[in-house]
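Hi all, long-time lurker, first post. I run a small reading group and we've been trying to get comfortable going from sequence to structure in the token notation. Rather than ask abstract questions, I figured I'd post a concrete chain and ask someone more experienced to write out its structure so we can walk through it together at our next meeting. Sequence below, copied exactly:
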Amino acid sequence: MVKKQRAFLKWAGGKYSLIEEINKLLPDGDRLIEPFVGAGSVFLNTDYDEYLLNDINKDLINLYQAIQKKPQSFIEDAKAFFTEQCNQAEAYYHLRSEFNASVDSYYRSLLFLYMNRHGYNGLCRYNKSGGYNVPFGKYKKPYFPEAEIEFFAEKAQKAIFICEGYRQTFARVQNNDVIYCDPPYVPLSKTASFTSYAGNGFGLDEQADLANAAEETVADKKATVLISNHNTIWTRKIYQGANKRKAIQVARTISQKGSNRKKVGELLALYKPAK
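-- Answer (accepted) --
Happy to help. Here is the structure in token form:
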């Protein structure tokens, strides 16, 4: 059995625990396209010749490109922020302010990793002005993911990273591509929404439009599309056009206390081209 690879970022809604189920549904192909790459667990745990990886979060893509180009320099520079002195609330808020004021893409990439590991619960959140606003996490000794970054950097040589809207990424699809979509999930309740993750709302209209994009792409491009989401009445309705829908129970990973991590229903919707 091949060892599962963890992403180097902590990520709300990361797909590490779902990899086996996703891989059962993803077909063989030359290229995997991810319009919502997030922490990249599916990218890290699949084996395609090429990857086209998109996310609307510019800081995330900027980080991936920095690691892809100069992994060892990045690791050495990033390590400087994983010290006892930097793991204090005052230092964290100072560096967060520096991040929000900086236009230097490389410095922002270093601080993005620092805040991901030192901020509360691995959340990634911005205010309406575009400022990163996740509070300090109060961890005893944040883990520096050196081995995970090295694995990512090696695999990234097969990838192209882009930052655009999901519809623009769908426009790049070619025949026989495989597309995996992990959009911001439909909230299970009115208060449980992470859709402000990149400062862009991803509401019910966008959810339905993504399902439309999947149907159109399968019909036009002979490509396969797999979408994951919460299993709700709404998602079961918008994914009615899928060839296969698979419901599974998955443990939540966003709660800080393990005892509070309840299982939630996930839905995988697979759209396949006609033979």
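A couple of things your group might point at:
The longest helix spans residues 204-221.
DSSP finds ten helices and seven strands in the chain.
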